[in-house]
């Protein structure tokens, strides 16, 4: 990484010595990662480990596209057509402003016809794709469809109370989440429709938690 920064630094130093103004050389993102190790992980470790897998790379400033490419390479290396891998790659590309590339990846994450969708995943996908396509009427329709999803009921379903469900987390703890799932995200997309996806997806655009 140091070699990539040396030449601009040298030119800047020479100009400064000649009494000329010199813009500061851009700081390049350090997106180094152990690609071979990451590609060798099983899918659960690669995609769902919040402190490992592709997420560590994506959390580095300026490394979202590197993480998106890592997800692409993982899917290709393992011949994975898994919707969640495509979804996460699509989100990263949307974060980076690569909207045309993101659309197909996000659409691939839809549950196919005949597969139960008890939590409103497909309307959430539709809302996200509509935002990325810059189609506000479609976003509003998807929001209405998602908002109308009935709460879970029956044996083995999470507890529903006062508009929230209580979910069991991987760490053994419980967490209360608004129902329908992702409704707060879609509300954020509506609230900040004129902002980039990365900003509209953020917590600041969503309604405050109760």
């Amino acid at each position: 990484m140091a070699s990539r920064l040396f030449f601009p630094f040298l030119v800047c130093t020479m100009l400064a010595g000649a009494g000329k103004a010199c813009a500061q050389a851009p700081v390049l993102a350090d997106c180094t990662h152990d690609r071979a190790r990451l590609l060798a992980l099983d899918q659960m470790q690669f995609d769902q480990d919040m402190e490992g897998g592709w997420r560590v790379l994506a959390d580095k400033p300026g490394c979202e596209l590197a993480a998106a490419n890592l997800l692409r390479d993982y899917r290709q290396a393992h011949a994975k057509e898994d919707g969640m891998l495509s979804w996460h790659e699509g989100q990263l590309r949307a974060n980076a402003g690569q909207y045309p590339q993101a659309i197909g990846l996000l659409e691939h994450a839809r549950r196919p016809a005949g597969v139960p969708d008890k939590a409103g995943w497909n309307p959430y996908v539709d809302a996200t794709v509509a935002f990325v396509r810059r189609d506000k009427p479609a976003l509003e329709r998807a929001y209405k469809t998602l908002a109308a999803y009935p709460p879970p009921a029956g044996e083995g379903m999470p507890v529903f109370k006062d508009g929230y469900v209580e979910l069991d987390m991987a760490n053994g703890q419980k967490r209360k989440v608004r129902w329908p799932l992702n409704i707060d995200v879609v509300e954020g997309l509506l609230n900040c429709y004129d902002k980039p996806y990365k900003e509209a997806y953020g917590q600041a655009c969503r309604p405050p938690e109760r």
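Confidence is low (pLDDT under 50) at residues 1-21. Residues 184 and 208 are 9 Å apart (CA to CA).
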